[in-house]
Design a protein that fits this description.
Rossmann fold, two-stranded parallel ribbon, 9 helices, about 35% helix, globular, binds NADP nicotinamide-adenine-dinucleotide phosphate
Length: about 260
Amino acid sequence: MRVLLLGATGNLGSRLIPAVLAHGHTVIASARSREKLRALISPTLFDRIEVVEIDALDSPAVEDILRTHDCEAIVNAAGTRIRDGEQIVGRIAASVSSAAVRVGKQRGGKPLRAWFIGGMGSLEYPGTGGRHVQDYLPVWMTEHHRETAAVLKAVPTADLAWTLLCVAFMVADSKAIELLEHPRGHGLRVAARSPPDWEDSWVRVVPLVGVYLNLIPVLRSYATKLEDTADLIAESLTKKEDRSYVGELVGMKEAGGKERG
Ligand SMILES: NC(=O)c1ccc[n+]([C@@H]2O[C@H](COP(=O)([O-])OP(=O)(O)OC[C@H]3O[C@@H](n4cnc5c(N)ncnc54)[C@H](OP(=O)(O)O)[C@@H]3O)[C@@H](O)[C@H]2O)c1
């Protein structure tokens, strides 16, 4: 597949470059600065990708790249929580998804495959009657991800085959971003709508506040490696006809419930 990767200079985006290549795809890496990307990844890796310089908020520019580079899939890892006091991740999701929808329609209703990144707060909190993790967290921690989820839920999967990966937090296994000979493999467990393998801590039984305090240890157990997360997304793109997780909010957990060593 020809994959447009947005946010290629980010923690996750930069790890997605070797992962997506290792799974046999072509990477069109979008960065706001080509030189920043060149300095970040190994020269061998840089030579293997096509680089474009666009702002993800510029929807016509995203559309143009998708069309002129003949992309079949998008991974949107662009967006930081706050820029100049304004949340932009939801706006980026709107810009990118609407560009992809337009391109899918121009191709005779053939939707592109797309992965977006959101927060774990958007998933259901098991045992709360369908309430969400974000209902028990401070608004400032989750409002940007709520926006992304709302944007995507409004997009029909007939127009864009989207998945929203809902992340707790990610840590790097390695600082070096280099070409991989083979896919790394990931060992992540994945589930739609609510987090996989949820295990409450003992504090949950504490009256009134237990349901809130429970999230402190539980969310920590959903930390994942950036490289594993990248491999999960890249692997899914190789299963071209696989519709699992399309139109879904998806959670993940490292095998053993903690970061792999
Ligand atoms: N890291 C985590 O633990 C975590 C947890 C939950 C959710 N997430 C979400 O996952 C995504 C990736 O996280 P990350 O840690 O990789 O983020 P990051 O390291 O802060 O990288 C953000 C990337 O977005 C790019 N970007 C920002 N605004 C842009 C714009 N207008 N147009 C194009 N690119 C733009 C940045 O490019 P420049 O280099 O040009 O600034 C950078 O490449 C984010 O949306 C984040 O909210 C991350």
